[in-house]
Each structure stands twice: as C-alpha cells, then as structure tokens.
Design brief:
It is built from 14 helices and eight strands. The chain is α/β, with parallel strands linked by helices. The strands form three sheets. A three-stranded parallel β-sheet has the order 1-2-3, with helices on both faces. A three-stranded antiparallel β-sheet has the order 6-8-7, covered by helices on one side.
Amino acid sequence: ITRPRRFGKTMNMSMLAEFLDCTKDSKAIFEGTNISRTEWMVELNQCPVIFLSFLNTKSDCSKGLFELIGETVTKEYERYYSLINDSMLSDREKDKFNKIYRALADIRNMESWRICIIESIRTLCEVLSLYYGKNVYLLIDEYDTPFMSANMNGYYSEVRSVLAGFLSTSLKGNPYLERAMLAGIQRVAKENIFSGLNNLTVLTVNDSEYEDCFGFTEEEVRKLLDDFDLELTDEVKEMYDGSRFGNKDIYNPWSVINYISRGCIPQAYWVNTGKNKILEDVLKIATDDITEKLYSLLQGEKVVARIDQNVVCRSIAEDPANIYSLLLVAGYLKTPKKELQMDGTYLCEVSIPNREIA
C-alpha cells in the first residue's frame, strides 16, 4: 500500500502488529474500540508476527545503510532469541537461527553478511512457524526508504541486489508466510530487480481498496473537531482538505491534529515533516512545458497529465513527464478525474490538493 508521508502508515502497521502478535497481551489497548465488537476479536494476539520498520534507514553510504538494515532485522531476532534457543526445536533449526543472528552483527565479513541478510526473514519465519505451529504475518513499514536513500546518495547500484534479494526471498516462495503487508510512499513493481516478485497486490492512491483507512475522512474530521467544540469551517477545508485516495476525499491527519493541538492556527504543518527533495529534483530537470504547467498548478488550475503508477524516483531522469506521477504519489498533487488507458497508465486532471501544499 502506497501513501504520502504522515498519512498514518506507521500507525496502521504498528496497530496491526499489536493486534496480531502472540507474544503480547493487547486486550486493554483494543477494549472499547470498534473491532472489539466484531468477530475478529478472536484473532487478538494469536499469531507470530515479524514487524520491520525502515523509517530511519537512511545513510550517505552503502555500508551505513547495510548496518542500519542489519540492526533493524537483529532487533526482531533478539525479540525471539531466548524463546527459540530454549525451545524443543531441533539443533539444526537453532543453528540456522543463531548463524544469521551472529552474522548480522559482523558487517566486516560483507560476503557472509549479504547471504545472511537475504535469508534472514525467511529463516526467522521458518523457526517461528515451527515453534508456534502457525505461519507468520510479515509487516514491513517504509519498505522503500532504503531504495530512496541509495538513489538520493548515488550508491543505488551497490545495494540493489541485496535489497532485491532480501525482499524477494522474504515474500516469494516462502512457505512459512501467512500474509505480508508492505507500506511506503512508492511502489516497487516497475523495478526490474523485482521481476520475480509477482505475487504482490499493489494498491496506490488511485485504487479504491483501503481508500478510507489512511488519513481522515470528512466525517472523521467533523467528529474530531466536535469533540473539541470546534467547527469544520471553510478555512479549515480550504487549508487541509483535498487529498484523494481512490474515490474518497481525505484530510491529512498530521495537519488536522496539529491544527487542533496548536490552538486552531491554520498553518502549513505537513510540509515541514520531511525534506522536499523531490521538488528540487523536479525543478532541476523541468522542461519549459513542465515549468509552464507547474506555474498553472500554482495558480489553482488543473492540468492534464499521464500518470504511471509504476514510476519510481529514478524515472525522472528517464522521462521528465514522470514528474506528475512522482508528485502524485508523494502527496503534492491529486487526481479529481482519471481515465484508465490501455497501457495501464491513467490520463488525469491533476491539481494541487489544498492551500497548505500550494
């Protein structure tokens, strides 16, 4: 599932992990919530879960990136270390687990580390499945951050095979996997390194599935404001409404919450939550036609653009027209109208969602 930053990806992933994880007792957390009144409550804390977040996996060199990835995976190994080593699993299974656990901490032996990191999640799934007698839920938050960091800092070619192997081995042909969910800003499908990873269902901002599960709907914003004796004024709507996922208008939750908590001052909150490097990249290579259209967008107008949901960061250099696709997935544009084309792209009317982003 792809969504712009600060639309609740990490919150949803951590919520799923907390609900499913059989090593936790989360009854008090979910008591009184909507799900507690459904048949799904019997699934509370019933499954083995691997939850990886690559939110802060950014580095200016490949070695630093590999160290951060290793640390993230090692934390999940440490979470299950005593459980696995004190269990009745065979020595062979324990040895596989411990070999990878030790190797992850020794990045000096790069060849051994590469092999182990690629096999790490599949092996952890295997030992957990054997221990619990149930297959594993794998949740990977901000899965695309390492790719974007590598691309931004110029060492993409050094890490692509490791990152591709890591994801492919974890997700494709893993018999110990019950279900996996990845969340990030960009999709990975167009990357040729993922040609073998064809079992993913990719849901972008243009797809209707889960359209109201990230960010706030207008009904939710009205309820939230009402809880604080506030009204949904035209000024608030003009400032924060306008993002569109599937067929739903969605408010940026980060901006709405900050608006309330900071004394109802209508400021630009979302744009200050991360670097806007994508805009720098866009402006560096914008053609005269693109510059003219960007100016029209800033005047509040709509422009027609072809949106390719497969586009990734590096696609700007290949074709400057991919700018609109990248701005859409990053949250800087919305598509009020879209028409699916024969080649799988969309012909869209795009515009800037609201005054905050403008």
